[in-house]
Amino acid sequence: MAENDARARIIDGKAFAAGLVERVTAASASLKTDHGVIPGLAVVIVGEDPASQIYVRNKGERTREAGMRSDTHRLPETTTQAELLALIADLNADDGIHGILVQLPLPAGIDSTVVLDAIDPDKDVDGFHVVNAGRLAVGLPGMVPCTPLGSVMLLKDALGDLSGLNAVIVGRSNIVGKPMAQLLLAQNCTVTIAHSRSHDLPAICREADILVAAVGRPEMIKGDWIKPGATIIDVGINRVPSADPVKAAEGKTRVVGDVAFAQAAAVAGAITPVPGGVGPMTIACLLANTYVAACRANSVTPVSLDA
Ligand SMILES: NC(=O)C1=CN([C@@H]2O[C@H](COP(=O)(O)OP(=O)(O)OC[C@H]3O[C@@H](n4cnc5c(N)ncnc54)[C@H](OP(=O)(O)O)[C@@H]3O)[C@@H](O)[C@H]2O)C=CC1
Ligand SMILES: Nc1nc(=O)c2c([nH]1)NC[C@@H]1CN(c3ccc(C(=O)N[C@@H](CCC(=O)O)C(=O)O)cc3)C=[N+]21
């Protein structure tokens, strides 16, 4: 089959995310009218990493567009762990702030586990606190990490009931791979988690009805690793030189996923594009988690955000 002979359905994460943001915006407006509560998100960024700066600016803009309060705390690269912990303590105590996100990665010398676990678990809209990881693992309500949450929303929208499907997740990070595995297990999938030490990764991937790529290696997963008709969720965000050599020479870049898209789309049943797939869902779920945190903090039952 020719490389450009795409037959997979393209899962439009951007459109699904826009719908979710609309529902969160309406729900937040009601929360304000009925209970006088405006959801508040604090985003903390340490250092000057350009990609992180762009993400943080986007998060702030999206949050305000949804009618929420958004505070961005920009700290210098030289910030100490103690200074960062002091800011988190202030934000934990601030009744106007319902969600706290500390942008990762943090500069060398700051222990991200210590920092993440200093956040009040009920304000942990990233769902990275050990208490929220534990709640997810045992099936208690908590804050669920945004990227896996958004990915499962797309899968349920594309496939309906996921029960009994073979799900393979490539990547075992605490922020994507592991929580993704928990969510798919909760949806009754048969879950395999693969990683850099896995033997014969292509063969493992070929067993997948649902293949989730969360590796951070541009276009690593090839078309012949994919079971015909499978559903592919490409979490990877990799910046590579522009395809146009002239533009590449000028330093222009483009974003690609962890899946070789054209090859994969010729075999898969459905696939998320990069950009426009999982990325927009991550931000939409961050807003959703902030709304839910604001409700819980004020003993209000959140309205359903389902489509
Ligand atoms: N769309 C979005 O909203 C988001 C996108 N991302 C993107 O998702 C990707 C993954 O992010 P994150 O989970 O934080 O990354 P990490 O670097 O924390 O984890 C990467 C995982 O991939 C595994 N891995 C690395 N190389 C290979 C290989 N050759 N074969 C098999 N497995 C391999 C690693 O295995 P091991 O554990 O053995 O080292 C590790 O488990 C990145 O591209 C990131 O930018 C991340 C967050 C949100
Ligand atoms: N505490 C913390 N929480 C995070 O959730 C977190 C983080 N740190 N550090 C970095 C990663 C990365 N991440 C993305 C979010 C949105 C897009 C996104 O919106 N992507 C768009 C645009 C991509 C582009 O053009 O750059 C898309 O895929 O269409 C991508 C990546 C959140 N992360």
Name some characteristics of this structure.
single chain, alpha/beta, Rossmann fold, six-stranded parallel β-sheet, three-stranded parallel β-sheet, 11 helices, 11 strands, globular, binds NADPH dihydro-nicotinamide-adenine-dinucleotide phosphate, binds 5,10-Methenyltetrahydrofolate, THF_DH/CycHdrlase_CS, NADP, methionine biosynthesis, THF_DH/CycHdrlase, oxidoreductase
Number of helices: 11
Structural class: alpha/beta
- Tell me the count of domains: 2
Gyration radius, in Å = 20 Å
What is the name of the CATH superfamily of the largest domain? NAD(P)-binding Rossmann-like Domain
Low-confidence stretches: none
CATH architecture of the largest domain: 3-Layer(aba) Sandwich
Number of strands: 11
Q: What is the class of the largest domain in the CATH system? A: Alpha Beta
Domain Tetrahydrofolate dehydrogenase/cyclohydrolase catalytic: 11-126
Pathway: One-carbon metabolism; tetrahydrofolate interconversion
Subunit structure: Homodimer.
EC number: 1.5.1.5, 3.5.4.9
Structural overview:
The protein has two domains: 92 residues, Rossmann fold, CATH 3.40.50; 135 residues, Rossmann fold. 43% of the residues are buried. Helix 1 packs parallel to helix 11, helix 6 crosses helix 7 and helix 6 crosses helix 11. The protein has a six-stranded parallel beta sheet. Strands 3-2-4 form a three-stranded parallel beta sheet, with helices on both faces. The mean pLDDT is 96. The two termini are 36 Å apart. The chain has eleven helices and eleven strands. It is α/β, with parallel strands linked by helices and 307 residues long. Bound molecules: NADPH dihydro-nicotinamide-adenine-dinucleotide phosphate (NDP) and 5,10-Methenyltetrahydrofolate. The site of 5,10-Methenyltetrahydrofolate has 16 residues, from strand 4 and helix 11.
